[in-house]
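Protocol step 4 of 5: obtain the predicted structure for the target chain.
Materials: sequence only (see below). No template structures provided, no constraints applied. The aim of this step is simply to have a reference model before the mutagenesis design in step 5. Sequence pasted as it appears in the construct record:
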Amino acid sequence: MAIWSISAEPVTGAGIDEVMREYFAEMGRRVLGRAVSAAEVQAVITRDPHRDLAPPDGEFLVARGGEGELLGCVGLRLLPADPTTAELKRMYVRPAGRGAGLGRGLLGAVEEAAVKLGATRIVCETNTQLAEARTLYLRNGYEETAPYVGHGRADHWFAKALA
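Step 4 output (structure tokens):
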């Protein structure tokens, strides 16, 4: 059984940019069906930066293994147009952390963080090619909904009421 812990860390912390590049590289392979260049990754980060996944209107959570290794992450930010709605962003589990319930753990932790920020609803987006993500959301009380913001290549949007 894998051992891991989840806690808030600065989105600007050591190793986070590396994990974000891994995340975007995997999204490119899976969603676009090809490798993405460093310039493409930088363009996505410029268009949709992750620096706002930080207090006071956001949070960035990191999952670490027993030796302190970074296994996964997830962020959230309150939507400026509706600060009672949090947007889940950049959920990623590295291959070494997969298959141990870490995705479910990150999802629960980010929902708790959203409630602490005052959100009563959480939304996220994903793609058809990311079947694991869609399954995770549906199994954890999310429902498909209409698009909430115009984002790149997303073709599935989800929402969940928070207690």
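Step 4 remarks: The CA atoms of residues 52 and 105 lie 22 Å apart. The helical segments are 16-32, 38-47, 102-116, 131-139.
Proceed to step 5.
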